[in-house]
């Protein structure tokens, strides 16, 4: 009789431990899902704001074409102002 009572107590503790563990597991999953909602969208938005998710054409334009264009324009402006200076010197 004592053995049966002892065995049932052990089973009861085991069931209680299992239920507690299952509840903790459930709560952990719910909290994880709640915490991760919108994480992907937020990460993509942050990467886009940092300029890491730009289309290749836009990136190539910003990195290659625009600096070249600005350099050439500055060169033309410098030549034009140089020509204007030479013209003024010839006139005076």
Task: Give an account of the 3D structure.
By secondary structure, the protein is mainly alpha-helical. It has a domain at 54-92. It is 89% helix and 0% strand. The protein has three helices and no strands. The longest helix has 36 residues, at 56-91. It is rod-shaped, with a radius of gyration of 37 Å.
Topology at a glance:
Blueprint: H1 2-36, H2 39-49, H3 56-91
Characteristic terms for this protein:
92 residues; mainly alpha; 3 helices; 89% helix; rod-shaped
Unreliable runs, pLDDT <50, ≥5 residues? none
Biggest β-sheet, characterized? none
Termini gap: 126 Å
Structural class: mainly alpha
Count of extended strands: 0
Helix content: over 70%
Would you tell me the overall average pLDDT?
Answer: 87
Overall geometry: rod-shaped
Question: Rg, please?
Answer: 37 Å
Number of distinct helices = 3
The proportion of residues in beta strands is under 5%
List the secondary-structure elements in sequence, H or E.
Answer: HHH
Concise description?
The protein is mainly alpha-helical and 92 residues long. It has a domain at 54-92. The protein has 3 helices and no strands.
